[in-house]
Amino acid sequence: ATAVLVIASTEVDKTGASYYGEQALHYIATNGESAVVQLPKNGPIYDVVWNPNSVEFCAVYGFMPAKATIFNLKCDPVFDFGTGPRNAAYYSPHGHILVLAGFGNLRGQMEVWDIKNYKLISKPVASDSTYFAWCPDGEHIVTATCAPRLRVSNGYKIWHYTGSLLHNHEVPSNEEMWQVSWQPFLDGVFPAKAVKYQAVPSELPSAEPKPAQAYRPPALRNKPVTSSKLHEDEPPQNMKPQSGSSDKPLSKTALKNQRKHEAKKAAKQEAKAEANQESTQASASQNAPRSAVPAFTSGDPEVDKKIKNLKKKLKAIEQLKEQAAAGKQLEKNQLEKIQKETALLQELEDLELGL
Predict the structure, then answer these.
(1) 61-78 pLDDT, tens digit each
(2) How many C-beta neighbours within 10 Å does residue 167 have?
(3) DSSP-derived secondary structure for 85-147
(4) Out of 2.130.10.10, 1.10.3210.10, 3.60.21.10, 2.60.40.10, which CATH number does the structure's domain 3-170 have?
(5) Could you tell me how far CA 257 lies from the centroid of its own chain?
(6) Whole-number Å distance between alpha carbons of 128 and 142
(7) Bridge partner residues of 109 (DSSP)
(8) pTM > 0.85
(9) Which of these, 89, 171, 296, 325, has the minimum number of CB atoms within 10 Å of its CB?
């Protein structure tokens, strides 16, 4: 009770960056000191919570994917958790574990962190949760779906912080559940225990939902999967790649050049693979028995050249037809090539007959 955090809001953002106005986080101490907490990412402030140990606080802020940062009493950042789908933070009663979660309009993903060592313990998922609370023992968590926020699929789940689902209670479809609460205990009843990383045993199956398959347009379905995220999540500061001795993040220009270099490298590798495939096909055709395709010569080098080109085109069309028969989605120009097969055959026949 020596300091307070205040979220201040304005209805209008004078910079025009946000339709909903802007927010700022202020630290005010009882001795008269005050400061504006400098948040590295623009956007709304979703949640700010004090650690029960009274020496730090955690803020969840910024446009999605949101950042989460721990600050000390001087408002200096202590640890940056990077970005992710989150809008809430919950310290355990002893202050040694922190849960970052995305509830409400997010999918219920949670990250459980050991605050002393800044190590990720588990990543359970509690979909459609409207309520979260730590048990006074600092080991168990309850998540619940309650009315009137949600009137369907009401119920609660009890978790161990290592990610194990220990109990799942579902309310009958004709009933509603309004509130869930842990039995209160006085401070000091449950001593702090060492943090575990191994999931505790549970009789219930894992509650992790199956990842939904992302929609892929027909033109991309038979091509290698590439990253198509709107936003690349920023990793926590202790998981960022160390480039030499410099810890500074790359500038926008350096990042752009790096992406260009990676794209060029990928294009070269793809071209190399295609060239290898063509050489393999060529060597296979050369090793084929000569009697299989009798060589035709008209006596005129120009005509022979045209016949050779026509046969090459017809062979490519055959390969495209085989790919289509195998279920591959062909491009528009490839379909147009197949449609020209009859005309090419007629032209080849005319040349061979000397018409």
Answers:
(1) 988 888 999 998 888 889
(2) 13
(3) S--EEEE-TTSSEEEEE--TTS--BEEEEETTTTEEEE--B-TT--EEEE-TTSSEEEEEE-T
(4) 2.130.10.10
(5) 23
(6) 13
(7) 125
(8) no
(9) 325
